[in-house]
Amino acid sequence: MVFLLFSSSLHAQKIMGFSDENAVKQADWEKQYDAQLNAKDLDSWMQYLTSHPHHVGSVQDKANAEYIAELFKQWGYQTQIDSYTVLFPSPKTRILELLGANPFKAKLEEPAVNGDKTSGQKSEQLPSYNAYSADGDVTAELVFVNHGIPTDYEELERMNIDVKGKIVIAKYGGSWRGIKPKVAAEHGAIGCIIYSDPADDGYTQGDTYPNGPFRPKEGVQRGSVLDMPTYPGDPLTPGVGATKDAKRLDRKDAVTIMKIPVLPISYEDALPLLKSLGGQTVPASWRGTLPITYHLGPSREKVHLKLVFNWDMKPLYDVIAKLTGSEFPDEWILRGNHHDAWVNGAEDPTSGLVAELEEAKSVSELIRKGYHPKRTIVFCAWDGEEPALLGSTEWVEDHEQELKKKAVAYINTDANGRGFITAEGSHTLEAFFNEITNVVIDPQTGVTIKERRYAKSLVDADKDTRIKLMDNKYQKLEALGSGSDFTPFLQHVGIASINIGFGGEAEAGVYHSVYDSYDHYTRFGDPGFQYGIALAMTAGRITMRLAGADELPFNFHIFYKTVSDYVIEVKTLLDNERTKTDIENQMIKDNLYNLSKDPKKIYLSPAAKEPVPYLNFSELDNAMEQLKTATEDFQKVNVNYSKLTKAKGQQLNEILYRAERSLLQEKGLPRRSWYKHQIYAPGLYTGYGVKTLPGIREAIELRNWNEAQENIKIIAQTIVTYTNQVKQATNLLL
Predict the structure, then answer these.
(1) Cis amide leading into 670 (omega within 30)
(2) What pLDDT does 593 receive?
(3) Beta-sheet pairing, 328-338 with 375-382
(4) Which residues contact 627 (CB under 8 A, 6 or more apart)?
(5) Are 87 and 375 in contact (CB under 8 A)?
């Protein structure tokens, strides 16, 4: 079935960055592009790509890369497979058992289910484990730590619960999984177990697989626990591509490998362990939905956890396919999605990958009809995303200097499903993205994807927010943290990036398990691949418009307004910390702290904290005022673009896309020099979750006032450098 989902009045629309004449041509090419999109392609490719497990180093991983490369070659792209060699551990020994009078040994297995033809491929599947866990053989009492994030340990400390020398058990959720063992180790724990509670993605949500979409009792979420907020990619080659002759660290010196053993388990295996816990009952917000009373521990009997890994070097296969631009071959529009998976990986990542392949196929059809993008389009299928963003990071590090010169933007997708458009990205691309959501039609409702997203926002909003949203359909881009392959492009090299996908109605509870299969996805994820086609329409337009624009559609003023909001946020964060500290210190002084807590629990009063000082934001405030004026001046004169000579037009475009580079500082962020972007970064203790103005924000959160003041100065200087780029662009248009 071919989807013909066109927007109305395409020929009459204005398109950012295009002259009126070229906008008409572009709209016509997009209409023809849509006509090429065929859901049967996505279905066929997914069946092949998910037919066997295809984790890093597997036979099918290489076969899939070669299959993808052959498709690109058939469509006329200059295609190559770039290979890297990385550290990729796999489990050799996994033992988890409860000792004592009522012993229990965890099964640590996911059985095949009826109706899922790939769930029983045992000999090819990676066992359930957390990559880059430490080897370890530990025996200790067990303590429940909720999600295992820093605020949970603050609560445990108030309840006089110490995890030093203990094994902790944490629920998935609340933060990225790698934060849980990291924080546990910092508090003295010697082992960490992570389980999926049915409250989050099991029977509490609905029928479990295969009767319904949600995680069955034996389902386990695999995943990496490498300390990626310090740096992603191969832990042995930080900052350089992991080529065969690259200089490598000794494994003992790789700071991102976890320091304690950590293992993911099912809620079936978790139940006997949780039953063994004594001590106080957990706070109400910590309770799951297993049929027990949740206790903090420690356990009545000890738990034994033994993990041994094969620390092997494995090959990666990045597929790179280029279509050379007709006018500006050295300006690259990069479009990527990863191809590796923990097991069969239908939703994650193949649902996004097959949409990308359909985009490439449809663009190739347009080429045969005379379409010639001005800029080079580079389609990328990354390997090794799941363990540590390996393929994209090593490729970016290997091509860093070339990318700094040529890369205009990076467009990323990953898992995709039925529902609503979501997007995060560089805020210079926000207006451009909104224009595209005005013309792509939602396949389920027949309205634009912007209208459908707006309707959901109204339904989900509280009363006050709903009033503010009325008649405001503009969709703000969320800031980018980490968790997918945009990370090295944006945060290490300074390439404007956007990450998009559909979701919210795809019924799934099988993330990173053997049940993330073609059979599950086509029943519950995106039956008929309608939203795969919608993704291809959306990402395809982003790619084609960036490749064909006369003037690149970057908006400096929206960036200014967004960063201005971030400055207000960090000031408010500082004020809130001051107020909180003053209140807590007064409560301690008046001996009132315990009276404010649950009298049924044992709480310890916290120690008094030093008062929060007043930081000097004047240099940053002045820099922001200069940026405001500069962006407003640019907006006023940008109407003169059509009067520029071709040479000056190209010069302006180079300033526009290289401006993002000026938001980097070469020495990087405190405690993690790999992350160089001063506006967006994953949080040290949030993992995938973003921290904006991270140098200031995290210093305030850590109560490091000198560091906060220093980073106010650094970000002010960064904004001044960015402002100078805006002024250079303005001067060209005068």
Answers:
(1) no
(2) 59
(3) parallel
(4) 560, 563, 719, 722, 723, 726
(5) no
Residue 13 has a pLDDT of: 75
Token pair 């957390």 is at which residue? 130
- What are the backbone dihedrals phi and psi of residue 409, each rounded to the nearest 5 degrees, phi first? -160, 160
pLDDT at 507: 72
The CA distance from 495 to 728, in Å, is 19
Task: Determine the Cα–Cα distance for residues 31 and 33; give it in Å rounded to an integer.
Answer: 5
Residues of the chain with CATH 3.40.630.10: 10-86+314-438+478-548
Which string of b and e fits 465-494 if b means at least 16 CB within 10 Å?
A: eeeeeeeebebebebbbbbbbbbbbbbbbb
Nearest to 244 by CA among 137, 86, 116: 86
Cα separation, 530 vs 536, in Å, equals 10
Which ranges in 315-462 belong to alpha helices (H)?
351-368, 385-388, 390-398, 400-406, 430-437, 449-460
Q: What is the DSSP string of 671-688?
A: TBTT--BSSEEE-TTTTT
Give the model's pLDDT for residue 1. Answer: 38
Where would I find the H helices in 553-617?
556-589
Q: What is the SS3 assignment for 719? A: helix
Tell me the C-alpha distance between 534 and 333, whole Å.
20
Weakly modelled stretches of the chain, pLDDT under 50: 1-11, 596
Structure tokens at 509: 């509870």
| Separation between Cα atoms, residue 26 and residue 402, nearest integer Å | 29
| pLDDT at site 599 | 55
The architecture in CATH of the region 556-733 reads: Up-down Bundle (1.20)
Token duo for residue 549: 């624009």
Question: In 3-state terms, what secondary structure has residue 478?
Answer: strand
Hey, what are 430's tokens? 């926000």
**Residue 459 — left, alpha, or beta (φ > 0 → left; ψ -120 to 50 → alpha)?**
alpha
Per the CB < 8 A criterion, the answer to whether 79 and 69 are in contact is yes
E strand or H helix at 81: strand 78-98
According to DSSP, the β-strands at 680-682 and 497-504 are unpaired
129 and 225 in contact (C-beta within 8 Å)? no
- CB of 29 closer than 8 Å to CB of 371: yes
Q: Which fold has domain 10-86+314-438+478-548?
A: Aminopeptidase (3.40.630)
91-312 classified as CATH 3.50.30.30: yes
Pairing of strands 191-195, 262-265: parallel
Helix, strand or coil for residue 21?
helix
Residues of the chain with CATH 3.50.30.30: 91-312
Q: How many C-beta neighbours within 10 Å does residue 648 have?
A: 13
Sheet hosting strand 167-171, strand order edge to edge: 142-144, 167-171, 191-195, 262-265
